[in-house]
Amino acid sequence: MKLSWKMLATVTLSVCVNSVAFGSNTVGYSGHPEAEKWLKEMEAEAFSDSYLRSILAAAKKKDSILKAMNRPAEKRLDWGGYRKLFIQPKRITRGVDFWNKHAETLHRAEQVYGVPAEVIVSIIGIETHYGRNTGNFRALDALATLGFDYPRRATFFQNQLKDLLVLARNENIDVTQLKSSYAGAMGYGQFMPSSFLAYAVDFDRDGKKDLWKNPVDAIGSVANYFVQHGWEPNGVVVSAVALEHALPDDFVNTGEKPGRPLSEWKASGVSVDQSHEVHLPAVLLRMKDQDKASYWLGYNNYYVITRYNRSRLYAMAVLLLSEEIKAKKLSN
User: Fold this and answer.
1) By C-alpha distance, which of 146, 163, 154 is closest to 199?
2) Residue 200: pLDDT above 50?
3) 232 is an active site residue
4) 305 CB burial (10 A radius; 0-12, 13-18, 19+)
5) What is the reported pTM?
């Protein structure tokens, strides 16, 4: 059969599209098998099918996101290397500046939520360098890429994509304009969409929850996140300890959740702060800096910090940076 020029153009276009579908940075997710499954699960969310399909058509796969997911700093570095990323004079100085600029808001957050100002400042400092690095990806692209082309955590990111659409509808925001990190975390405090829906607050009472451009809402939301996860005002985070003898590996770095009471740690040969109650639960942490190691007991507030990022390196960096910022502020 002889093809007309119109038929030939159609066949050529079809071949070109199919040859790059789902494998480039420019093709949307319309027709992607995983996206089609997601569409069926979205039927209960009161979005029209035409809207959802337009969202999938607008979403773009980003190969750079998939590469970044396989090299997070928490897996590449020991405590010594990780600490150097965040405990820097510039970040400490800018933390003091951020605190001074938003002193009234931070004081109010302390009063309302019981979370120290320095901890809130430290979180924002580590997450985005006080709003300077909030992410250059579209959240839509990040979550679609990870939801549909990152099988290991597809369910999680598909749920986050759903929540992104819900929060955009709730806040009357164009979802295609929302920026995020490569993992879909957004704003000053890098909230995932589910965290935004659960913990974001309108701390300046202007009728909007804006974590992208409004540090007041971001400060209140970070503090609310902590208290909703069980932060104890004036509670200890960690304490440095020494070991009387080596302990089995299943005693150390067993997770974030404090489990053994101090009485058991003491009986096992761990030095224990005598000012703490013997029934206080803790987890034993080993922090390595090349060939050196230090040991710490982490308590409930340590566990709360790991609800933000489930890494002992992250939790210790938040604590150390908060202490450095507070010390510099008090010395000024």
Assistant:
1) 163
2) yes
3) no
4) buried
5) 0.89
